[in-house]
Amino acid sequence: MAEEHGFDQASDGGHRLCVNNCGFFGSSATQNMCSKCYRDVSLHKSGDSSPLFSPVPLTAPPPPSAAEAAAAQPITAAVVVEVVAPPTASRCCTCRKKVGLTGFRCRCGTTFCGTHRYPENHGCTFDFKAVGKEAIAKANPLIKADKLNRI
Fold it and tell me: Per residue in 27-57, pLDDT tens?
């Protein structure tokens, strides 16, 4: 089709396959090589065989002698404490139905489905009356006027 319209890929700087036959396209700016082959050739010519972003080898420093280690730092004991997170409940505590993200967390600390979310439906052990009384007592402190002296 290109021949019919008079287009020639080589003359207008179009896509040419890499001269190393790697399957990618090259350009005249990279000596008709793809970017990977051009980078490899230019690194080989410069004498640096390592790529620009090579990982740093992980080598441990030589261990110090026993006398140096004892003089450098006193030995201290460290205690490692593991914090175990409670597993997230993904099932209703009453009917064991999977609730996922739609589960309702009750004040008693368990998760329930939509049917058992109300305290009277799952036999909740949380004391709502005591919490309500405490909230009212904190919000409305008792105010007493000073006693008046009789004349």
Answer: 888 888 888 888 888 888 877 555 444 444 5
